[in-house]
Amino acid sequence: MPAHVPNAGLNRRDLLKRAGGLAALAAFTAACGGNTGRPSGGGGSGGAKVNLAQWFHQYGEAGTQQAAIKYAKAYTDANVAVQWTPGDYGSKLASGLLSSNGPDVFESQLNIGMVKSNQVVPLDDIIADVKSDFSEGDLATNTIDGKVYGIRMIVDPQVIYYRKSMLDKAGIKPPETIDDLVAAAKELTTDKVKGIFVGNDGGNALGGPALWSSGGTYLTDDKKPGFTNDRAASALGKLHQMYADKSVLLGAPTDWWDPGAINQGLVAMQWIGMWAVPGMVKALGDDLGVFAFPALDAQSKPAVYSGGWTQFVSAKSANVDAAKKFVKWLWIDQAEFQEDWCLNYGFHIPPRKSLAAKAAKLQSGVAAETVKLTTEFGHTDNPSWTPKMGTAFTDLLTNVIKKGADPSAEITKAEKTVDQELSRLFG
């Protein structure tokens, strides 16, 4: 399982928003159990080191847990215990953030509910000196009301990788529009190979990219639904066409986040993250190509989903200052560890622009092209997009893609939910 999918059975956006959004729903749970991840003994008095608990979800890449523990052990100003959580990390974190027995430092994605519920503390002071070294998108996804609440740890672009030989044999060029993609997927489908793999749910992961490729967005700058026009409806409807053409692989042994389908020749194209590049290159060599999700038409641009994970400090920590100091040490000061984390366990883009620019492993081949596409066409999550909004949008996608429901009618339903949430949050 890739770095950012703690539970592949759920939509990625819902998963990464769950930590903040489910906290209220989990209020009946007093804590997350006796195993807090903290070392035994006291901290902070009598000259003893402070004890800090750092929470991670279970990454799929081999060596990641050992790396996280190595970083923690290298820190000498506090005792940092790493808690590695398999399974439903989001729900466990939601409960933990309600309790003083939860994490001091944790990874997630920012949700406005985390701020309104006073679950996280601003980190402007520790990022101030290097703020310009982070991309605009990575800052925006961690900023609420002008305050930065998290330090981006890892950037995971998601794009479409393809088998060059299969497209060449069919005389197909990498698609430049969604219509091109739909047509290519259909033409590449045979009795043995499907045109594309976009997830066993039929393609919900493509909802955001399709929206962006139409020129739309989840929320506008003035906090209004940005997915309600005819262009968005057209783009989402084309995802259904690809599904209806039976061009998409369904029932794969693993989901879209695993490169097994394209590596084994089950598909000609696959939507997946850059984390899988080393494994795909090992299996396919120079036969691997990449392109962004295509534009709807000449009026808009291609889209890359620039996902990832961010480090936060819990407002309920008994040692907030010590936790902030540790986060600064690890994710701002320790370039060696940041490079190791992003480049030696699958491929990811280091959030620091200065580190990404000199990352040797990202300077050639499809990795370099993926970085270029992300720089040109990347989109990050909007922290004001809540889990309830995400559920409404996922329902929209499911009904349109798999059931063939009218996109405009489904958009109207989702818009109502999003408007209600926006009114609740902003009046």
From TrEMBL:
<dbReference type="InterPro" id="IPR006059">
    <property type="entry name" value="SBP"/>
</dbReference>
<protein>
    <submittedName>
        <fullName>Sugar ABC transporter substrate-binding protein</fullName>
    </submittedName>
</protein>
<dbReference type="Pfam" id="PF01547">
    <property type="entry name" value="SBP_bac_1"/>
</dbReference>
<dbReference type="InterPro" id="IPR006311">
    <property type="entry name" value="TAT_signal"/>
</dbReference>
<dbReference type="InterPro" id="IPR050490">
    <property type="entry name" value="Bact_solute-bd_prot1"/>
</dbReference>
